[in-house]
Amino acid sequence: DSGVTQTPKHLITATGQRVTLRCSPRSGDLSVYWYQQSLDQGLQFLIQYYNGEERAKGNILERFSAQQFPDLHSELNLSSLELGDSALYFCASSVAPGGYNEQFFGPGTRLTVL
Amino acid sequence: AQTVTQSQPEMSVQEAETVTLSCTYDTSENNYYLFWYKQPPSRQMILVIRQEAYKQQNATENRFSVNFQKAAKSFSLKISDSQLGDTAMYFCVLHNAGNMLTFGGGTRLMVKP
Question: Which one of B35, B99, B103 has the shortest CB-CB distance to A97?
Fold first, then answer.
């Protein structure tokens, strides 16, 4: 158990819908990362937050948005869902940004868009 | 843009033997970190080993070691005394100074009894 929690574990929805994925970092970690793992795109870094502020942005679509709240939990919002958005979405946390800080991954949220 | 390439989609090794997974990368930066993560069938991502680009000494973690060749932009992972629990997908990851992370396509390793 990494100490990072993600809810829900599974999510099934239809095209065009909007969903919210939630991540609670390990106690004491201020930085949160979001990743997407799909069959055709592999693993991709989406976005990173540190203490409530966006620090780095990767291959995140405009239909997707994220935020980190004062209690440090983070939410990833996916809207106008398409079939290709079906993927495993991981959240990871670390004490601070930077490669010297180990990231601890949550178990992921499996999103299926029908 | 930075890229990470893992040229071996699948590999297999006999239990107790040694296997090397390859990774090459491209970046214009001088300061960065390289990682190997494993993803077993449970799908949990687990850090295996980390290398800081400014350190010439290769990182080691018990049975895991890397061969970091900065000039060649190569970062291979050697697993010694392979165990059944090493069966997993292995990802090579580049983390740059701007906190951008790039993953390789992964190598699926099967350890055979």
Answer: B99
Contact B34, B94 (CB under 8 A): yes
Q: Give residue B98's pLDDT.
A: 81
Tell which residue, A27, A80, A76, has the closest CA to residue A47. A76
Q: What is the pLDDT of residues A41-77, one digit of tens each?
A: 889 999 999 999 999 999 899 999 999 999 999 999 9
Mean pLDDT, rounded, of chain B? 95
How is residue A56 written in tokens?
A: 């780095």
CA–CA gap between residue A96 and residue B96 (Å, rounded): 14
Q: Mind telling me how many Å the CA of B97 is from chain A's nearest CA? A: 7
C-alpha of B56 from chain center: 17
Amino acid making up residue A110 = R
**CB contacts, 8 Å: B47 with chain A:** 102-103
Burial label, A59 (beta-carbon count in 10 A; 0-12, 13-18, 19+): middle
Interface of B with A in 81-110 (CB under 8 A): 91, 95-96, 98-103, 105-106
